[in-house]
Amino acid sequence: MRSSDIKPSPVREMLNVSQRPGMISFAGGLPSPETFAGLDLPPPPRELLQYGPTEGEPALRARIAQDLAALGLDTAPDRVMVLSGSQQGIDLAAKLVVDAGTALAVESPAYLAALQVFRFYGARFEIIDRSAPGARWGETPPAMAPPSMAYVIPTFQNPSGHCWTAEERQAMAAACQAQDVILFEDDPYRDLVYEPCERRPVCAGLTGGSWIYQGSFSKTVAPGLRLGYLTASPDLFPLLVQLKQAADLHTNRLSQWMVLQYLNDPGRAARMDQVAALYRRKRDAFADALTRHLGNRASWSLPPGGLFFWLTLADGIDIEALLKRCVARGVLFTPGSHFLAEGGASPTIRLNFSLAEPEAAERGLAVIAEALGEI
How far apart are the C-alpha atoms of 69 and 11, rounded to whole Å? Predict the structure, then answer.
């Protein structure tokens, strides 16, 4: 029975802990509330209270398709589906592709909620080497059969913050196309950019083959609306629609209408510039605080976008013991081991810099440093 494979999400459990009064949380991927789009809107059309199309509202699908085509993706409004959050897209792709024992290529570390879904459906993982993706797929020994699907977050990856180079993106696209591997590109952070970085979708480098590209409005509008979207190659899109029909009939129509107003707002680009500027300031202040408190205890890179710092501590540090000490003192973070596709221990932690105010971040990092010193 699949019920034996159901495991709780460590991040969702941590979010419950983060609700404790006074808790400073670096654990989730929560955007700052001050970035939420102002949605002071007129009353929505009454017909939106009725059932709607599975694929989403036509006007919203057309608007999303316009934006995606500008990124170089081969899409059209009739191949755009609005999701109940991009997490739903991961579940639909897994339902479509994964049976017990199905091989999936993933990064490691990788987005832990995707790993959770893939494991639930029985996937086994092959770790992607960004410098030579697919090097062992179908080649001479030590060759292995190509995976059924490759799942990647190439732009401001969660949890590492890494942004793939143009060469890495081209190599990934070429490997998937040559070996008939479905390319599943998850791109929720692309608009949260603070430094020059290659952001052209990997899927835009395909001239054929099977692919899925998805994004989210949680990081750019508001996560409470639970709205994402995907587009896919013509062979996969109808199948994904049928799976969604069986999942939730259709996505919240009021949320779709609200997001459409945001996308059509003439001030949208200026607002996103302001959001990026705010997060850049938060990132830089967080980096300064990291240097003050953990500069001689950890290593990290400045993320060019996204919401996370990925820290490597000294080998031998008991991260779970560190977390327990920190939680007792009102500070929460995510152990890096949760993001490893291959499992096992890891001397890493992920810290979200977008939610806590600078003063709270300063206090929280000081607590981590203090607990580290005790360990």
Answer: 34
